[in-house]
Amino acid sequence: MAITGVGDAAVAARVRDLRKTYGKGDAMVRALDGVTLELAAGEFTAIMGPSGSGKSTLMHCCAALDTATSGEVFIGDRELGGLKDKELTRLRRDEIGFVFQSFNLVPTLSARENIVLPQSIARRKPDPEWFDTVIDTVGIRDRLGHRPNQLSGGQQQRVAVARALVGRPTIVFADEPTGNLDSHSGAEVLDLLRRSARDHDQTVVMVTHDPVAASYTDRVVFLADGRVVDELRNPDRDSVLEVMVRVSAPVEV
Fold first, then answer.
1. What pLDDT is attached to residue 3?
2. Assessment of whether the complete model's pTM goes beyond 0.70
């Protein structure tokens, strides 16, 4: 199953025959082995697969944090391989939001300062109305003056999500965003990402290993051995588990 598309929906990002290898000769590892995939605008998509399946590599290549060995990556209608360093920097700043598992907040800055940091670096001010919308969506207004060490893990991750959203990027990538959270805080962050897509037409792509997390999404794409092997629409926990068991099973010879 090399190609998965989004039908008539607008496409926020896509990859074509993407390949990523490490090492040479007998030591070569194929992290991505010809992935072709479209990510729909305004949709919440999960990327899942066994350890070593290539899901994080795919996300990093899509987010311009890593470079593929061959193939093409598009954000909107722009192909990343044709961009110069300054253009790539501008694209990462303006078109891509990223939510890290480890939050990546600056400890000496307040929540508000962390949220607007990318805009400050770019010497821009966030749109006040959109800033208020994001703050109310993440439910962090009463914590804007607090530093990260004064916030719970869930609150820190909500600040990180707000930081990713406030610049109105074309697409937000989230790498195991609930990996360091308890189940309650994790559910809050997942609900926030889902509402960001459904209520504000934000495109969100999340790497996760958790079937419960994947059940919050509109679509799940499954990788194994660097290839797309299956997908689900409108997933629930049990349907995700069923596919995960199948794609993780050893191949009989």
1. 47
2. yes
